[in-house]
């Protein structure tokens, strides 16, 4: 009768597995850093430097993302107040996005995926509601201070 022999897992095997698991989180971080660097070098405050928002061009109203590029540029210049003025929703969402990325990266590092967030569906619905509310309020006269 044949028995299955298992070879011991070596440090190199664990490191290779960790490297494969970290491709996603580190790849996303690299793309975000490259985008931030590009936005730092080419100022989106100059009209048309990064094109125009199609929704704004068609409707004349800003979308929830309008001002996001300017906010990233302001953050790369360490100007949080101007970033919040450009797109408050984007700046306010950064701590949550950072938390989710750290959970993902930590799970990839340890090899144990993060546990699902409690009330995940409710959080997604609340996030979508916040985006829609932000979009609505910034287009009304009393919310003009939120416009980019």
TrEMBL record:
The lineage of its organism: Bacteria, Bacillati, Actinomycetota, Actinomycetes, Propionibacteriales. The keyword Transmembrane helix applies. Keywords: Membrane, Transmembrane, Transmembrane helix. InterPro entries: DUF2752 (IPR021215). This is DUF2752 domain-containing protein. The chain crosses the membrane at residues 22-41, 80-102, 123-147. It comes from Nocardioides cavernaquae.
């Amino acid at each position: 009768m044949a028995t299955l022999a298992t070879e011991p897992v070596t440090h190199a095997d664990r490191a290779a597995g960790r490297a494969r698991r970290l491709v996603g989180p580190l790849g996303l971080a690299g793309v975000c850093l490259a985008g931030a660097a590009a936005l730092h070098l080419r100022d989106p405050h100059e009209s048309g430097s990064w094109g125009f928002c199609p929704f704004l061009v068609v409707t004349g109203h800003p979308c929830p993302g309008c001002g996001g590029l300017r906010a990233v540029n302001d953050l790369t210049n360490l100007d949080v107040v101007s970033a919040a003025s450009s797109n408050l929703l984007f700046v306010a969402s950064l701590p949550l996005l950072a938390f989710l990325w750290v959970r993902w990266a930590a799970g990839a590092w340890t090899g144990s995926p993060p546990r699902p967030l409690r009330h995940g569906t409710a959080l997604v619905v609340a996030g979508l509601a916040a985006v829609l509310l932000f979009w609505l309020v910034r287009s009304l006269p009393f919310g003009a201070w939120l416009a980019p």
